[in-house]
Structures are given as structure tokens and as C-alpha cells.
Design goal:
Strand content: 5-15%
Structural class: alpha/beta
Keywords: Coiled coil
Distance between the termini: 101 Å
Radius of gyration: 33 Å
Helix content: 40-55%
Number of strands: 18
Shape: globular
Largest sheet: 9 strands, mixed
Number of helices: 27
Length: about 850
Amino acid sequence: MVAKRRDGIFPHIGTEAWGRNLADAIENTCAEHGVVPPPRQAIAEGLATALPDTEIRGLIASRSGKKVLKPSAYRLVQAGDEQVLLLMCDVHGAAVVPWDLNDRTVNCWSPPVAGASQRVKELIAAEMALHEARKTAKTAEKERESCRRAAGDDTYAAQALAAATQKHEDAERRVRELEDERQALLTTLGGRRPRPVVRAAEEDGEPKAALALAEQPYEVAVHMQRYAAENLERAGKTRGYDLAESLVDAGQLSKGMNVLQQWQITRPDGTVSKLWRLAAVTGNNRALARLNIFRVRPEHLVTGMPQSLLPVPKGKKVDPELLLLSQREILNRLSDRLNEAAARPETEATDPSVRAQKIATVSAEIVIGCTKPAALEHVLRTLNVNDHLRGIQPYDEDARLIALFATLVDAYARESLLADALAEAFPDARGADLLDLVGVRDALTANGPLDPLVPLVPAGDDVSPTVLRDIAVRAITALVFPEIPPEAPKRTNARTVRDTGRFWPIVRGTLQEPAWSQTRAKTAEARTRLWSAAIAQLFLHRGNILSALGFFGVPETAKGAGQDPRSLKVLLLGAEAGDATAWAALVQRMAPALIHAPQPFITAGQGSEAGDGRKGVRRTPKSALAALTLAYTATSASNISRALLLAFAKAVLEHPDATQPPEAEDSEPLVCYGERHWIEGRTPITAGMVIAPDTDGRPTQYVADKAWFDETFPVELGRPDPGSPGSTTTPPTAGTSTDPTATTVHGAPPADPHDQLATLRRELPARVELVEGGYQQAVDSAHTLMTDFEEAHRLRVQLGEDALPAEQRIEWMEKLAKVRAAAQASVTTLEQVEALILQV
């Protein structure tokens, strides 16, 4: 016998038969419009189970013997180059889950690096152990107080009190140990959680218009959903009014866009449940506020609702461990409970059955089709960003800048200039024409892996996470600070307009900047903040984005960043070979890693501008970068050597990819340099920290931190006196005199020949490797040229075309003859070098 359905304002969900009819109607309508529908299972389990039964009937019509959607029930939207089909309907007020990937909380997520999931599991275990330890400590405290207040002063009572006191102390010590362990795990995760990875859902091996999360354990899914909800609530506190009370009083006044998404949850018994739910693409705050009004937790919707929270009617046995997985069952039980409570006259006004009446159903637009499912996530992100940038709710500064950068990258792609801009920024790329622009777009906005940037790596260089991150930093810099063409010669009595090239107008239009001639310090600061926020998304440990202020000024903003085109490998070899320009460029590449480190070396402006007495020495980010740059040529700092600088640079560039904490060579415990005199409260040593090198480049017993950096590279080092003798030293390649009685330009005695010989012996191996790399590149270029000419000759013979004009062929042959003569001369030079090697 079927139980009678309770009447009331809260709706009852349709049956499975109506769900099948809705799936048929959506599939037929998508076929008519040439778009890809969601998986049929997603429609039946995620969409039809969120709609009232009367709503489904109103959406479907019959035409030519098949079910289709009514024309008034859907609309086709153009989103960039893609089309999205939206279903307009009313859904149950508690049927939509907030989207984890909301752009307002993007700065709360870290990149999904390898091993992050395991660290989250360890953090969850540590939090559970800490919770139990706190309960044990509380019980021990009550036992101690009970023994202390007990009557009597006999020996037994004293022993019981001593035992209870010791038990409490042991419990408190255990709590402190677990708190330290939890804090260390949080530090390893960068204080954030790895961003959930979604992909297009598949049906029979074909991508569909829905999203699917990667498989995750039950406890991880609960933890991540709670984390997402907490950060969404924090971001929503900037709203100028109480959203929940607004929904209770007036209902939902605007539609939100939703997408079907699948959660794959691995249960403790090993079974995997695949649950389809509606996720809010726009209106995330409204979706979370509605669930709070209904008193439903988001994690219960996506992992399973405990039956004890929605018990069955009276008289039936309740299994407290049973999880309700069917959305239809969850929403029907919720509606039945609320309708029953609303019918009772004694129900208070604070009850959900009264507060949720105006949001019992809400209007929504649901993605039910798209032209390119692989790009659906990016299209939805863009719609979310555009909706928020035009909204009235204020952004967090970091999230707003990240959203603006995503809009900037889309503007380059929309104008078909993204590939051209990257090809111009990477002249030595192995295959800039082979770029997957969708993957590059996701990589630069930290919404996907960096692998699509591999074609930008120079030929001959190894592909590693460090190299790809360096490529991403250079690409972001090129897009934010594009180069403009050189200024044309001025003609007398003629008004000229400066040509800003193809790329600068895109930046100006997206960021709504003034004309090129009006570029001022305010524009440079705003552009630097945008660059810093975009770069920060590439790092696990996220520092203050204001730490980059001063890195770029008005010249870079107006005319381009002017990046050194050499690769990271060549810059390291150049710095090892004594090239000061290579070291200066390398410091620029290191700057983001110096900011976004577990122990940041460059922070936002610190100290007192008036004097050193109250807040210490004034240290701006630009000062820290200048000191590190000038340390390469400074002779006044006896504690700095080239070996120290190179060892520090290599460690800093590689630290974001470390998965294990650093260890000293003699297995002694490491401590942060600034905490070496501390006894308690030391910072835990976690993966990504850098061991401070000594003057010989060997690791010490300390972890490099801000105190070590400021002591090694003080403010004074960044302000050298140009007139002081010996403030800088000339690189050995600049041509030094061999006369032992000669003096320097400023009258100082010349360098010791022994030191010069030691320096040359230290730098020559890197110079040999640089020459080897240059020759290998020349050989590869010659081979490529020969291959191209062979192909041109083959095609000419095949097509029977006429030969090129004689003047063109003679010009090319003359150029190649000069190149061959130079190559032969260099061979002679190399033979002389080989002979000299035996004499060094």
C-alpha cells in the first residue's frame, strides 16, 4: 500500500517514469539544436530528482511522436565561441550544492600538486586524533578536579590526586603534540587545500555536457565540501546585507545558473558511489544560504544524508548508520517533514518550515547542452567571472585580480593573438605553433596542469616542473606587460601617433586603462598587483601579493617587461661563468619563488620610513631584489660568494616541487636561522624549505628564512656608492690587464693573480658548456634548414614549378658562404682552445 502524500507548500519530487521522459525530451531537443546533452544517467538522477512532479509535466511536449522541451522552457546562449543550452525551470530549494570552483574563493585553493591528496588524508587523521585527544584531556581535567575536591587527606586520596594530575598533564602534552603535527601538515599544504579537479563527464567514451570530480575517499569528500562552504561563507560576509534573511523575507529574486556534476565517493568498505547533483555555477552564496535555511549541510547532499537527520515516518525502524544516497528520497523526506511541521499550529517562526516557505522552489537555469563539452568548465568559469565582475558584492582583492587576469587571457584568445604573443615571448621555443591553446589558457590561470606549456621549452632543455613554472611566469609577464614596437623616427612639422602594436590594446581594453601616453605610477602599481596575483596561483605556498610592488615601474608598464629570452638552464650556466647580466635576469626569475615560499624571503614593505628605532630598517621588496642582484658583483661583502649565490638560486627555484622536508647532511635537526636561539615554539621544518648555504655553497645546519636573507643581503648592499672604490668588480670576461703593476680605474690595486686564476678555473666549465649548447643549437638549425630546402626541392619537382630568380638564389648562397666561413674560423679557434686546455 502506497503511503498518502502529505500536502503542503514544499514540493514532492517526480517519479522515475517522468525522469525518463525528461531525459528523452532533453536529448531530442539537443539533437535539434546540434549540441551535446548531459549523460542520460545525470538527467535521471541529478536533474529529474530535483524537480517537482508538476514542473516536469510543464516542461515536456510531444511533437511528431517524440518528446521535446517546450520552446518557452529553454534558451540558447552564446558564450564566446561556444553555445550553451539552458533549461529554465523551478527546482526544489534544497536541491543545489555550492560549486567548489567559485571564483570568489579561488585564492583559498592551492594547485592540485602531486601528493596533495595524501596530505589531506593525513591532515584529516590528525584532526580526528586531535579531537579525541582534547576529549580525553577534558575528561582527565574533570577527574583531577573531582579528586582535588574529594574529602579526606589520607594517603590514598593524595595518590589518586597525583595520578589524576599526571594523567591530565600527559593528556595536555599529547594535545600539544597533535596540534604541532596538525600545524605542520597545514604548512605543508600551504595553509590551503588542493583545488578539486573536474573534467567533462563521459558516456560510452564520449564527453558530455556535465562535469565529474575525480574519485575521492568519503572522509576527504566531507572535509573538502566543508572547507569550500566555510570559505564561501567567509567571502559572503562582505555583503552589505544578510542574505539568508533576505531570502526568508522576499525569496530569491534572480535566477542562478547550475550544472550537473558527479561526485565519486569511495566508501570505507571499498564500494564506490557515483552521485549526480546540481552545482551552482552562479549564485553560490544563495545556494549555500538556502541550504542553511533548510538546515541541510552541503556535504550530506554529495556524500549521503544520514537517515537519523531525516527519519522515516513513525513506527518504522531507523538505522542510524544508513546513508540516503537517492536525491529523490532525501528531498521527499525533507519536504514531508517540513510540510508536517508547517501544518502544526505550535510551530515557531524560527522553524525551517516557516523560514523556507518563500524558497520552497526557486527559479534556475540548468546547463543541458553545449557544443564543446571539453571546454564546458572554462565556459562556466568565464560566465561566473563575468557575472561577478558586474555585480555589486565586493571581491576579495586577490580573487578580483585573478578573475581579471582570466578575463585578460580570454581576451588574447578571443582576438586569436594568444599564440602570437607567446611565440614572440619565446623565440627559442621548440614548437610554439603546436600549442594547445585551451590547455595553455587553463595552465596560465592555474585551472589545469602546466604540461601544455612544453612546446615553449627551448629545444635541448629538459622538461621539469621547475622549467614549466618558469615558462608560465615568463608567459604571464609577457601577457601582462606586452612589448610595443620601437618608436618611429619623427618627421618635422608632422603629428605622429605612437604605434602600440597588437597586444597593448588588448591589455588596455580588458583592464580599462587610460591612453598609452597617460601611463603613470598608479597604472604601473595596478598592473603589478594583477601580475603578482596571477603568479601566486602557480605556487603551493601563497605569499602576500603586495610583496611584488616595485618590481615593475612605468617604463615596463608602457613599453613592456623586456625579459631576457635565455632559458633557465642558460642563465644558470651564464651566472656560473661570471656573466653579471645572466645573474640579474636569474634574480628576476627567482623573485616569485622568493615571495611564495614556506619561509618567504621577500615580504611587503616593512620597517619604519621615519627611522630604524621603532620598526627596524625600512625594507621594500624592490630593495630586497636589488640587494640580491648587486651581491653578485659586490666586493665589500665578505660573507657572500658566487658559490653561495648559485646554491641559493638553485634551491629557491626547485623548492616548490619538494615533497619531503630538507635534511642536513649529518642528520642533525634543522632549525630556522632566525629561531636558532629559541628553546620552544620553533617553526616545524616542512617540504619546500631551503637550507641556507655557506660561502662554499655547502648546506649548513639552518633553514634559510627572512632573518637569514636580510642579514646576508642587507639594505645597504642594495644602495652601493658609485664613487667608492671596489664597490663592484668587473667580470673576468671584460678584459683585465696582465700587468701586475697596473691599477684599477679608481686607483685601487689590481686583483691578486691567484684569485683570478681560481675564478677562471671555477667559471670555465660553465663557459665550455655554454659554447657546447650554442654549437649544438647551430648544428640543429643547419640540419633543419637542409631539411626544409630538401622538402622545397621535392615539392618543386613534383609540381613542375619554375626555379626562383637567380638574384634570390645568389643572395642566399652569399649569406650561407659567410656563415660557413665564420664556422670554419670558429673551428680553428676551438682547436687553439683544445691546445690551451692542456696548459691550464
